[in-house]
């Protein structure tokens, strides 16, 4: 499948998700859509989708953002500026990338292993790995023993200890994509293990028919370089804005 087709599948999945929430077809331009899964967050996140931009928000602030609706698709910067005038504060920007074609990978001396989240031995491995990792890195990779992803691939050393971890879960706005998280043991960084474990994950899941999504904060430059080196291409940058809860 060509890159443009993969990008379009991704965009169409988000558009259909938004239309399901709003109960109507979305016109070109900018549309604010309340999402119950964001209830209580007081946040609104803009997703540029070519001829349209969708702003998913906490339903409690949907009417507050109604002035953003219009016939022109706002850029992320325009959205951030307009939202700021409405009393919002930009709290994050992220890049969404999809894989175009085969994964680029390189050989290494560590073995790739598919973990079973229900196996006690694999859980012990994960517990040890998590204990060594920074909480912020665990949060970005969405690695939590209480809510493990179904599909997990790791690189292990000769003693069976985890050196690098990758997992995927269904992307909530489009079930055709695995949303990949990756984290490398702090003592094993700067050796290309992040790229290798993501490549191993993709090769493991290829036969399932899944497509692949890689998300990272724009400030995490190293993560963005990792994704680009593997062939993940940027679809768009999104922006999250938080508003003060009404008193």
Residue runs with pLDDT of under 50 for 5 or more positions: none
SSE run: HEEEHEEHHEEEHEHE
Number of separate strands: 10
Termini separation comes to 51 Å
Side by side, the strands of the main sheet go 1-3-2-10-4-9-8-7-6-5
- Rounded to the nearest angstrom, the radius of gyration is 19 Å
What is the total domain count? 2
- How many helical elements? 6
**Largest β-sheet summary:** 10 strands, mixed
CATH architecture of the largest domain: 3-Layer(aba) Sandwich
CATH fold group of the largest domain = Aminopeptidase
Proportion of residues in extended strands: 25-35%
By secondary-structure content and strand pairing, the structural class works out as: alpha+beta
Which superfamily, in CATH terms, is the homologous superfamily of the largest domain? Gcn5-related N-acetyltransferase (GNAT)
Q: If you had to describe this structure to a student in words, what would you say it looks like?
A:
There is one protein chain. Helix 5 packs across helix 6 (221-230). This protein has 6 helices and 10 strands. The protein has helices spanning 3-22, 76-85, 120-132, 135-141, 193-205, 221-230; strands at residues 29-34, 43-49, 52-57, 88-99, 111-115, 151-156, 162-170, 177-184, 211-217, 232-243. The radius of gyration is 19 Å and the shape is elongated. It folds into 2 domains: 3-99 and 238-243, no CATH class; 111-230, Gcn5-related N-acetyltransferase (GNAT) (Aminopeptidase, 3-Layer(aba) Sandwich), CATH 3.40.630. Strand 8, helix 5 (193-205) and strand 9 (211-217) form a beta-alpha-beta unit. A 10-stranded mixed beta sheet has the order 1-3-2-10-4-9-8-7-6-5, sandwiched between helices. The termini are far apart. Helix content is 30%, strand content 32%. By secondary structure, it is an alpha+beta fold.
């Amino acid at each position: 499948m060509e890159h443009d087709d993969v990008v379009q599948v991704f965009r169409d999945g988000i558009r259909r998700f938004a239309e399901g929430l709003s109960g109507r077809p979305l016109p070109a331009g900018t549309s604010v859509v309340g999402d119950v899964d964001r209830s209580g967050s007081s946040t609104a996140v803009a997703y540029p989708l070519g001829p349209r931009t969708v702003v998913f928000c906490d339903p409690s602030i949907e009417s507050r953002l109604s002035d953003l609706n219009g016939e022109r698709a706002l850029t992320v910067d325009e959205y951030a500026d307009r939202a700021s005038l409405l009393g919002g504060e930009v709290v994050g920007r992220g890049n969404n990338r999809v894989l175009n074609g085969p994964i680029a990978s390189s050989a290494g001396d560590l073995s790739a292993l598919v973990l079973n989240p229900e196996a006690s031995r694999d859980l012990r491995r994960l517990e040890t790995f998590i204990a060594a990792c920074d909480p912020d890195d665990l949060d970005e990779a969405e690695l939590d023993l209480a809510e493990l992803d179904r599909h997990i691939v790791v690189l292990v050393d000769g003693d069976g200890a985890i050196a690098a971890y990758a997992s995927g879960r269904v992307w909530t706005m489009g079930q055709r994509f695995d949303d990949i998280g990756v984290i490398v043991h702090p003592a094993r960084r700067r050796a290309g293990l992040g790229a290798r474990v993501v490549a191993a994950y993709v090769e493991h899941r290829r036969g399932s028919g899944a497509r692949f999504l890689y998300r990272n904060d724009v400030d995490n430059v190293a993560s963005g370089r990792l994704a680009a080196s593997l062939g993940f291409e940027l679809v768009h940058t999104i922006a999250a804005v938080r508003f003060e809860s009404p008193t």
